[in-house]
Amino acid sequence: MGNCCSDVAGGRAAVGGSGAAAGNDAVDHFLKSRGMYGSQMELSFSATNLRDRDVLSKSDPILIGYTKGKDGTLAEVFRTEVILNSLNPTWITKHVITFQFEAVQTLVFHAYDVDTQFHNIDVKMLKLEELQFLGEASCVLSEVVTRPSRSLNLDLLFREDPTMSGNLRHCGQLIVHAEECISSKTTMEMVLRCSDLEHKDLFSKSDPFLLISKIVEVGLPIPVCKTEVLKNDHNPVWKPIYLSIQHVGSKENPLMIECFNFNSSGKHDLIGKVKKSLVELEKLHSNGEGENLFLPTTVGHNHQNKLLKSQLFVDKFSQSSQRTFLDYLAGGCELNFMVAVDFTASNGNPRLPDSLHYLDPSGRLNAYQRAILEVGEVLKFYDSDKRFPAWGFGARPIDGPVSHCFNLNGSNNHCEVDGIQGIMTAYTSALYNVSLAGPTLFGPVISNAALIASQSPANGGKKYFVLLIITDGVVTDLQETKDAIVKASDLPLSILIVGVGGADFKEMEILDADKGERLESSSGRVASRDIVQFLPFRDVQSGEIAVVQALLAELPTQFLSYMRSRDDIQPNI
Amino acid sequence: MDKQGHKASRTIEVTVLSAENLRLDRKSVKKNTYVTARASPLNSGSTKADFEGGSNPSWNEKLTLEMPFQTSFISLEVICKTNSGDRVIGTASLPISDILEDYTPENHLHFLSYRLRDSKGGRNGVINVSARVKMPVDSVCPSVTKNPIGYGCSSSWQQPALGVPVGHQKNYYSGVVTGVPVWS
Fold first, then answer.
1. What residue stretches are annotated with the VWFA domain (chain A) (predicted)?
2. Is there a smaller number of Cβ atoms within 10 Å at the N or the C end of chain A?
3. Could you give the dihedral angle defined by the CA atoms of residues A113, A116, A120 and A126, in that order, rounded to the nearest 10 degrees?
4. What is the per-residue pLDDT across A65-101, written as a single tens digit (0 to 9) for each?
């Protein structure tokens, strides 16, 4: 979660190994799909008061763990060892899992009693139908990591009659404990620079950036980090980059550091490269030496490396152990979910099937409902009271003028509803109680969310707020929205914007600093951090990345950028 | 101090953190940049020069300024030491209203960034600072936050309605201010 990202559009696009073009989203997905952005969690297990299935002795329990897919299918991920004669076992086998904030990771556990005749068989070879079932339990990984103790007690349940849907009987407890692997916490900060880079552009100097990749035994190097693009610079000094040990495997793992000349076409020219491990980079720093870049060349059938006069220097190299997202959660921090729904007339008449607000009698969810449900289902685990502020904007409540921030539950006094289902119910009833109007203004809802977020520091600063805005059109008050976002960037708040329908959302991408420069207000104040994530819903509807994952992936980083700045800043006085 | 012994100014702590993308004569700045923060003609402070950061210098240096109550902003100047003398790279204004936000605690640490403008008004990088009002040690009620307000929206947009019905409060704030702190 500590990857560096550029502030400039060029830097965001600046990814592609060996000169090949590659979009940033593709690389981000590539990294995420391999757990590069998650934290490694080590799960350990114990149980109490298990059923005794043996006549002359106690049960010999084994625990088998599964992950549950969206379609409900179970995939086995681990088996513990067998503990002999124990109704209160503590298993030694640990299961390492990558915690992915943006996904709901459901775990299912089955406990079995292993008969004596199978004790000499490797646990992987045991046939489950030959074992005696002791009970099952399930949880979501988020439930474990949000506990202050990172321990969760689960009831083991046993169905007396497998053919009946009811008849569940308690038969002991399973305790799941999670520890974050130390590699997730150890971070390297490096300042890299190059000297005497070669000209690659015809009429100007090169626009260099670095791409750092992990070299793996099989296949192409895996990109783990990139710098920003520096325009017209032959002796570039890039902003600090941060790598966790987890990203690179170990300090001894070789890394490929490639220097590219940025081209807006996406076909970036390779200027030169260096192959070094973190240990070797640290040595370069301590010795104050540079390493010559090389360029792979082919002469006939011979592959040679042409040594260049350009050099890579490590101006800073420091290692630190930082508090992680999960550390803050264990310390009592919460993410509080808020939602704002667009009720402007451009959504279409809610009673007609072509409306974005159409409530399908068959129960099929519309885009607004799906966005609320998918984001809410992830975030609800991080909010202790599960009461969520919910607003609408751009509509005319009964007997009133057009409102750009009204309470979805119809109340004049309070805006909170109970649970995700409460939001869904309030949304449905609002559709019957307001008439759609316009224009599309974000300023009021962002200001209201910022007002709530501004209360957090007065209460120990343990709450961080996430506002989901779902809209069908381009915002009308763009400058006011920018001003509100810039002001809110100093608060414990992130804003997720989901664009639904077929509108051209190009303008909205300006609000997401991933895709351009830092936002600037009309007064010249600049957003102190990136707090907005924008995503058109159609981008992900048919793709393999769920809307939630694409939207929520940056939240831990945004959360950390706020929390760490409050924790760690120790000025030199 | 005025005749009654009241302070005519407030103390502001500005930590000058860093700057980004500084240019001088259309070239990236290499080194020797420092920042001067000015609350009034007679009240200013400067950081040490940064020798390593080039066009992205960092200072992490705290400056304490006495700010007269009638002053509405702090002026920030990024200056580069050159062979031909000190040259202003860019200036920015830090409005006091950005530090005295309506609903955050009085001494809340704000992280703020501002666009730097050169002498011709052109954009020239960004400066990052943190700032807070330094609370008097002997204030009567130092931990009091400003009067908190309810956060429900009324049916038409306006400042959120005062007061939140009991039982609907998420404890975003604690207590109600019952008096105004008096500075001795």
1. 336-555
2. C
3. -40
4. 999 997 898 999 999 999 988 999 999 998 999 898 9
